[in-house]
Amino acid sequence: MRVLAGRRFWVDVLCSLFSVLCSLFSVLCSLFSVLCSLFSVLCSLFSVLCSLLSLTSKDKEPTTENREQRTDNIKFFGSVYRWRILALLPLNNHEIRIYMRYLLIALLPLVALSNCKNAGGDQAVEDKPQLQTVEVTDSLGYVVKYTRRAFDYAKQGEFSRRSPDGKLLEVAHFAGDTLHGLRILFYETGDTQIVETYQDGNFEGPYKAYYPNGQLEFIGQYSANTMDGEWKRYYDTGELMEIVTLRDNLENGPFKEYYKNGKLKTEGNYKDGDYENGLLKKYDESGTLIQTMNCEMGVCRTVWKKD
Predict the structure, then answer these.
(1) Alpha helices (H) along 57-169
(2) C-alpha torsion sign, points 259, 262, 267, 269
(3) Vertex 145, ends 192 and 208: CA angle to 5°?
(4) Of the options 3.20.20.10, 3.90.930.1, 1.10.1020.10, 3.40.50.12780, the CATH number for the domain spanning 131-305
(5) Digit-coded pLDDT (tens) for 175-227
(6) Which of 180, 116, 125, 176 minimizes the C-alpha distance to 148?
(7) Does the global pTM surpass 0.90?
(8) Where are the domains of the chain?
(9) Among 1, 69, 75, 175, which has the minimal tally of Cβ within 10 Å of its Cβ?
(10) CB atoms near residue 62 (< 10 Å)
């Protein structure tokens, strides 16, 4: 198992490095695309400038002597014409056609590179799935389905578990391979059993548990992965059974117990767990006080009792 874990670690490292390299390449391609766009704008401006200059030139065919002279100059790729353009000297139609021909030849490689970038780099990034869906069936037939991140296989998003006959038993939400958000457990009948809330893998927020008949059994609050504050328990018929104060997952503070008819049954204080401490009072079903006791860490002695 250690060898497999080590291999998995290095595979994850290599995948992460490859992802970083792909991101850098994508940034470079984006910068190149911006440069190509700027160059295209400059070419458009140059074309407009040439059109304006052609309107000011004399629209006439060059003489044989001038044509031969210009042909010699063109062999040096515009050693004369280049300076004429920079000086914004007027050009005739023949000269403009020659310059545009060289400009198109120079643009072809840039257009080809831009098309390769759009067809290859961007498509590779877009087609690469960010999340993968995984479905696993264990030896007993239970089906687990969840989504995970493609680059490190960490659970991300919805998680579900079903019984062999397809009944939903659990739904949860993961973030970075840890529970985050609601997690709901179900009885095989389909009724809700537990609803709990997580934050970064720890209990945080409301907690509810239900009887198989759908009635609420427990309700309370978690804070920083510990039960804290007032927790309530109910009878399976819906009546309030008990109210307990908890701190650090232990009973600490006042508590009250009730009969099904709603009358107070017992009241007192717990300390460091299920240990009565201090004055404890007991009542009959009519709500009449019948006994008082003095308790010390769960050991109680009667101080008064109704005859």
Answers:
(1) 64-75, 81-86, 93-116, 123-127
(2) positive
(3) 20
(4) 3.90.930.1
(5) 999 999 999 999 999 999 999 999 999 999 999 999 999 999 999 999 999 99
(6) 176
(7) no
(8) 2-127, 131-305
(9) 1
(10) 15
